[in-house]
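Figure 2 data, in text form.
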Amino acid sequence: MLKKIFIPVLLVVLSSGNSFAQQSRTQAMGGLTYSILDRDNHLIPSDLRGNPAWLFVNEKETYLRISPSLGNSWGDYHRKYDSEGTLDASAAFTGIKTLGDLGTFYGFTSYNYENRRDYYRTLKKDTYAGEAFYFTDTTSGNFWYTGPQVQLMYSWPVFPGLYCGGSIYYEVMNGLKERYVYAKTIYRDLRTNFGLAYNIAENFILGASIKYTSSQEAIEGSDVNLMDAEVKNYRGETYYVSSRASSVTDKIQKQGFTVGTQLYWDDGEKTYLSLQCNYNPANTKILKPYKSIADVEEGYSAFEYLDIQFKGQYHVNENFLLGLYAAYYNDNSWSRASLSDLLIWEWKIKRIVGGIGSTYKISPALLVGLEYEYSSANVDSSKYIDKAFSKFTSGDHLVRAGLEYNLHENIFLRLGFNYGKIEHDILNGGNNCMSYKVTGGVGFPLFDLINVNANIQYITLSPGSSANLYRNYLKGSISIELKTF
C-alpha cells in the first residue's frame, strides 16, 4: 500500500496536473464554484456548457497555458467491471489569440495516457454508459489507452451586440489489453458546436448553441497462441451469448445532439444572474459483423437528457459575496435487443439540487469561502431481462470550504475541504456513503510574464455498511500560463 501511495505522490509533486487545469485556483480551494469570483469561472454563456459565441467578449488577453497532469485511484469499492485502480497522465496546451475586430481564436491539444489495473473482463472503454450490453472475455488484466485530443474554437462579432462562434473537437484513443484475447481498441470521438449570443441590452445577454457528438469504439481480439478466443456478449447482467473464434470483434457507435439556451443578466453593480437549459437526445448501437459483409445491429439504447441550471451572485459589499445555485435534471433511457425487438432495460433518474454559499475577505490577504448543497434523486430502474426492479430516493449533502492567503506580492497559498454524505450511491451501489476531499495549492508569478498555479487533491469514498471498502483518488495539476506567445 505504501508503494501505491508514495509513487503517485512523488510524481504529482514533480509534474502534477489534471483535466481541471483551467480552474486550478478554485480546485485548490475545495472546488468552490458559484460563490467565488474567478477568471475561469464566470456566469456568462461561454462558461455555461461551452457556448463558443461569447468567447470574443469573454477573452480579452492573449496567452498560452501549459498543463501537465497526473492522477491515480485505487481501492475495492467499485462496480463489477471497474478496474482495481487507474493511473492517468496527460500534457495539455491551451492558447487564446485575440485578433481585434477579426475575432478571437482558441486552441487546445493534449496527449493522454491511461492504465487501468486489473480491469475485470470487460473489453469496452465505457462499460457503464447506461446501456444494457456488456462485452467481456474470461480474465482480468491491465488495459491501457493512449491518444491525443484537439479542439479549435473561433468567435467573432457579426455586428455590434451579436456574436457568433463555432468549435470542433476530435479525440483518438488506442487501447490494448495485456492478457488473454489481447483486445485492441480504437476509440474515436468527434464533437462540433455552434453558438450565437446577442447582447439585447447593456447587461442582458441571450445565447443559444447546438452541439453534435459522434463516437465509435471498434474492438478486436485474438489469442496470441493461435487458439480460439472466447468472449461473452451480455444482454443485461445475467444472460449472455458465448462466442469462440480465431478473431472476435465488437463495434459501438454513439451519436447525439445538445440544444442549449443561456440567459445572463446583471444590474451593473451587485447582482449577477444566469440561467441555462440543455436538451440532449442520444443513442447507442451495438454492431456485429455478419458473414464479413456488413454489420448487423444487435442492440440499441436510446437516451434523453434534460437539465436546467440557475446561478446567482450578490455582492453585499466589496469583501462579501453571496452565491446561489439550483438545478433540475431529468435523464431517461431504454435498451432493446434489436434482433428480437425486446425491451430489456429501462431507467429514469430525476434530480433536484439546491445550493448556497459565500466568500468573505477577512483581511486584504485572506479570503475564505463556504458552500452547501442538497440534492434529491429519484431513481426507477427496471431490468426486465434480469427480473431486477428497483425504485428509491436518495437525499445527499455536500459541503465545500476553501481559503486563499496572499503570502507576499501575488504569491498565494490555497487550501480546501469537502464533506459529502450520500444516502444511496447510484454509481457504485453503496448506502450511507461518506466522502472526504482535501485540496491544496499555490499560485505565483514568474518574471512578470508567467503565472503558475498548482493544486493537489485527495478524495476518499466509502459505504457506511463496510469499513473495509473504500475508493481513493489522488490527483494533481499545474498550470503554467505565458501572457503572450
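Caption note: The radius of gyration is 24 Å.
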